[in-house]
Amino acid sequence: IIKRTGETFLIGMLVPAIMIVMVSWISFWVDRTAVPARASISVTTVLTMMTLTTSEFTSITNGNCITSLDMYMFLCLVYVFLAMVEFTAVGYKYKQYRKSTTKLNEDSARRDVQNSEQNSDVQNDTDSTDNSNSTPPLVA
Hints:
- The structure is a single chain.
- 79% of the residues lie in helices and 0% in strands.
- It is an all-alpha fold.
- It has 3 helices and no strands.
- The chain has helices at residues 7-25, 35-59, 68-134.
- The radius of gyration is 34 Å and the shape is rod-shaped.
């Protein structure tokens, strides 16, 4: 009777795949402005998962059937890839947010300058009319 030991699969494939997926989730807690850190985590985990999946497929299976381990490794690869997609989406949305807040700040500054100019014009007008009315007429 031939027996299979699950330790080879557990230690060689399952545990490393779980750890790679967990490392890819670290990018969720990294600040969104730290683009090099997030990019390196995402790219490294995707490449590592691809290498692990390829080595599993070539060394364990004979290539003509799909095993549950193949499906598991593919699912782990999908999770790691989706973490990379999330990094890209957050970067894109953050860039749009910064662009819109910059435009809002410029518009607000422009409005403040216009309001201060209008207020100074109104103040100058009231100063000139107040000076003419503030002197009482001389009565003899």
